[in-house]
Amino acid sequence: MKKPFYITTPIYYASGDLHLGHCVTSVYVDTIARFKRMSNFDVMFLTGSDEHGQKVEQKAKEAGMNPQEYVDKLDLKFKDLWKLLNISYDKYIRTTDENHVKTVQKIFTKLYENGDIYKGEYEGLYCTPCESFFTESQLIDGKCPDCGREVVKTKEEAYFFKLSKYQKQIEDYYENHPDFIRLDATRKEMVNGFIKPGLQDLCVSRTSFKWGVPVEFDKNHVVYVWIDALTNYITALGYLQEDDSLFKKFWPADFHIMAKEIVRFHIIIWPAILMALNLPLPKQIHAHGWLTKAGTKMGKSLGNGFNPYVLCERYGVDSVRYFLIKNGPIMQDAPYDNELFLNTINSDLCNELGNLLSRTTAMLAQNFEGVLPKVANTKENEFDSNLINVIESAYENVEKYINSLDINLAVNEIFKIVRSANKYIDETTPWKLKENKERLAVVLHNLYFALFSVATFLKAFLPQTSEKILNQLGMDSNNAVFENITNEFNLKIAGNQTFKGEALFARLDVNKEIEFLLSGEKKMEEVKVDVKEEIKEEVKEIKGKPEITYDDFDKCEFRVGKILEAEKVEGADRLLKFKVKIGDEERTIISGVAPYYTPEYMVNKSVVVVVNLKPRKIRGIESKGMILYACDETEENLCFVTPEKEMESGVEVC
Ligand code: MSP
For 623, how many CA atoms within 13 A lie in the half-sphere containing its CB? Predict the structure, then answer.
């Protein structure tokens, strides 16, 4: 049985567009989630959107919409950005989801009935943009410690959570669980700065705005921020709901990851809420630094947020992912800088990785018609052994760094293979081996193995680039598993038809590109958008695929299929396995539609199938072809495509 692994990003505020800084947490969590899936964990990766609160109410008003309409539109944009960045979340929670709302109400009532929540009057210093109350001692120069803006004295009837009651328990917990907060410095700052001076009870309801979860037993109040937002990590799994199997399986979370400004809530308020609910605490909380611009946190309200769409569109998604992983704020704040971004693409992705692939495939084409030769021995000399050692020993370090969340070091281990392989070319001088085909075969074989291994690792880090490399290597993506990064596998590979495809990353003229980026700075900065129009435009842009010729289209074969059997795929929430009859043939097809249809409902339905797609292994099952569905951008509305009247199975759709 696979071991469960639960990892989360925070839920993103649905109060405006996301900028490049927001992509940091998502890219880190996605990389770890992908790596863990490949390491045979049963992964649950949760992300979502934080859709309630005064700020959202205000923003919706400014946009001339009601709050629900406003968050619906933003949600669509968020999902679109995550799709563009290849963020492979397993679940997406919205705090306006009915299940979440109902569960928050249940939690609030439960805490009230247990005496952990009581009614009182709050007078405090409130920062409206951050939706947070502060004590005098927490302010910095009399201003909000998080955003530096003015705070106002506010007084109102409110419910309070007895945070003070958990002071000792939290202190003891930290004492006994030094690994709970990953960084020592963060732990010390939290304990000495916030816990030791004394925890104050926390205001957890509001009456001054309406856009929130109503308190079940006192409808004048809405649940205020934290009991609504933090609990997403358990409501998404079905806590206190009819089906709580995911909760039983995945809670407590393995990693909650976020940037540092919200770590305080996660290591004081969240544990106290969990203690009050008598639930175990997450295993580890990790706070990373900020992506900065001109020395300050990149943030939309600060007007220096960069638009990730522009960078992805011009330089490719993986350039952005790579930059955030390699140069991002893993430990400390890190700047986004055009020159650094462009130079990183040129040096690592284009020169080191891209050249290794193009040189290897070119030499295979010139000398072996692109076919990987079979060799009896891959370690003929010290150079061969050294390279193979570097490759075979990489997994251990990459895994270690993934587990300690040092993903910049993890990616560096992969690039060590790239660098060693480039050095190996210099050492073995394959261009001088034209007359010694046997030796040349060994050298190219080992270079092929290095590229195969790099592509396998990069599945977790740069999924699109990984696919491109495997494709040029003529290697089935199903073989790209960590278990195959061994010389034993290296010895077995032969006969694969490689080809020299397009360059992985185009070489950039840094000065010209800087000029372009600076001249487009307006475009790059977060623009205050009319959400209604803008979303539609952007979605169209991203979703639109390039034109194809009639001949391209003609290569696809569509036929009517009849579903004979349907069942869930064990251990995969989204997948259904179908037995489909197409004419005389019966085949297995897997679709990610379990959230939309029960297996029973699908039996006997007529569907449209792309029948000549190359089979793919999904969760170890060979899926042959693809059933067509219509799905809108929210991915909440999905239906299968069916012939308008009864048609025989096997009939061509053209
Ligand atoms: N809604 C809250 C989280 C509630 S979780 C129970 C929130 N949302 S956010 O949209 O402001 O932030 C989402 C994530 O993006 C957080 O991890 C946040 O820290 C991160 N970042 C936002 N700006 C960032 C940078 N400039 N740099 C790095 N990470 C940044 O907070």
Answer: 20
Q: Model confidence over 493-508: pLDDT tens digits?
A: 999 999 999 999 999 9
**Considering only CA atoms, which residue is closest to atom 14 of ligand 1?**
22
* CB 425 within 8 Å of CB 451: no
Give the closest residue to 605 by CA, choosing from 615, 618, 593. Answer: 593
- The string of pLDDT tens digits covering residues 102-148 is 999 999 999 999 999 999 987 888 887 776 767 787 788 888 877 78
Whether the link from the prior residue into 643 is cis, omega within 30° of 0, is no
Place of tokens 């040349």: 440
Atom of ligand 1 nearest to the CA of 50: 1
pLDDT value of position 214: 97
Token pair listed for 257: 């990851």
Protein residue closest via CA to atom 19 of ligand 1: 259
If one compares 510 and 516, the residue with the highest pLDDT of the two is 510
The C-alpha atoms of residue 280 and residue 271 are separated, in whole angstroms, by: 9
Q: Please give the mean pLDDT across all residues of the chain.
A: 90
Ligand 1 interacting residues, C-beta cut-off 6 A: 10-13, 21-22, 24-25, 50, 229-230, 232, 258-259, 261-262, 290-291, 297-299, 329
Q: Choose which residue among 258, 301, 307 to substitute to test ligand 1 binding: the one with the highest number of ligand atoms within 8 A of its C-beta.
A: 258
User: What's the gap in Å between 296 CA and the centre of ligand 1?
Assistant: 15
Please state, in angstroms and rounded to a whole number, the distance separating the CA atoms of residues 166 and 187: 17
| Closest alpha carbon to 371 in 454, 493, 467 | 493
**Whole-number pLDDT of residue 254:** 98
Whose alpha carbon is nearest atom 18 of ligand 1? Answer: 259
Contact 76, 535 (CB under 8 A): yes
Residue 318, number of CB atoms within 10 A of its CB: 24
- The per-residue pLDDT for range 164-196, each reduced to its tens digit, is 999 999 999 988 998 888 776 777 777 777 788
Write the residue with the smallest CA distance to atom 6 of ligand 1.
230
- Mean pLDDT across 290-310: 80
**Ligand 1 centroid vs 561 CA: distance in angstroms?**
46
What is the rounded CA–CA span in Å between residue 48 and residue 96? 11
Give CA–CA dist 74/91, Å, rounded. 17
Calculate how far, in angstroms, residue 285's C-alpha sits from the geometric centre of ligand 1.
14
pLDDT tens string 253-286: 999 999 988 988 999 999 999 999 999 999 999 9
Q: How far is the CA of 392 from the centre of ligand 1 (A)?
A: 37
DSSP-derived letter for residue 482 is G
Query: What CA–CA distance (Å, rounded) separates 97 from 95?
Result: 5
**Residue 253 to residue 9: CA distance in whole angstroms:** 11
Query: Contact, 456 vs 485, CB < 8 A?
Result: yes
Ligand 1: distance of its center to the CA of 263 in Å?
10
Three-state SS at 619: coil
Is the distance from CB of 305 to CB of 298 less than 8 angstroms?
yes
Is 50 exceeded by the pLDDT of residue 532? no
CA separation for the pair 13, 146 (Å, rounded): 15
Q: How many angstroms is it from 258 CA to the middle of ligand 1?
A: 6
**What distance in angstroms lies between residue 337's CA and the mean position of ligand 1's atoms?**
20
Antiparallel, parallel or unpaired: β 205-206 and 222-223? antiparallel
Q: How far apart are CA 451 and CA 473, in angstroms?
A: 8
Statement: the pTM of the whole predicted model exceeds 0.85 = no
